[in-house]
Design a protein that fits this description.
By secondary structure, the chain is mainly alpha-helical. The chain is 60% helix and 7% strand. It is built from 7 helices and 3 strands. The longest helix has 23 residues. The protein starts with 12 loop residues before the first helix and ends in an 8-residue tail after the last helix.
Length: 178
């Protein structure tokens, strides 16, 4: 029996997505094609970010800490943990690496003797323009071929997905519902 095939240019969206997927979609993920696509997208995005950031001496995530420090000024490490929705151990490693690279320094808090403030150094301010270029390049790579309207739609969809997960995180976790 002959297999029916779509006419040229008539390939289904799911078939096109499967063909272009960089990670095979296992059968068990069949109930979550959007979740699997987010996984694949996040993995590729982080890979490209890592390649671009390595050229300027940073690792993924460090540029986000620097962005907050440039924007807000010196911060307590616990405040960076909250801003980044991170954990203390990860932030400690990140700040230590940024400090070793000369991009941040610690100084005693004038209001809390138990705390220190993490502040950007002059060297990090010189890095800011390079970080901005990396983020622009990453945006261009990610949205290549999209119109302005498609970019706006993609951003709105991503924000809605994030909102949904934030709302879900605020509710008690119960058994899976179908």
């Amino acid at each position: 029996m002959a297999e029916s095939r779509p006419e040229a240019g008539q390939e289904s969206e799911s078939a096109a997505a499967q063909r272009e997927a960089t990670v095979p979609v296992p059968g068990a993920a069949g109930g979550g094609p959007i979740s699997h696509a987010i996984f694949r997208l996040a993995r590729l995005h982080r890979m490209f970010a890592g390649q671009l950031l390595r050229r300027i001496g940073l690792h993924p995530g460090q540029e986000l800490v620097m962005m907050h420090l440039w924007e807000l000024g010196p911060q307590r490490q616990i405040d960076l943990v909250r801003l980044m929705d991170s954990d203390a151990a990860t932030m400690t490693r990140t700040v230590r690496r940024l400090e070793q690279a000369g991009f941040v320094r610690r100084r005693a808090s004038p209001t809390d003797k138990r705390a220190s403030l993490i502040e950007p150094t002059a060297a990090s301010h010189a890095l800011r323009r390079e970080v901005e270029k990396v983020w622009s390049r990453l945006e261009d790579l990610s949205t290549a071929g999209l119109s302005g309207d498609e970019r706006a739609d993609a951003l709105a969809t991503l924000e809605r997905l994030e909102h949904n997960l934030v709302q879900a995180a605020a509710r008690p976790v119960g058994p899976a519902q179908h």
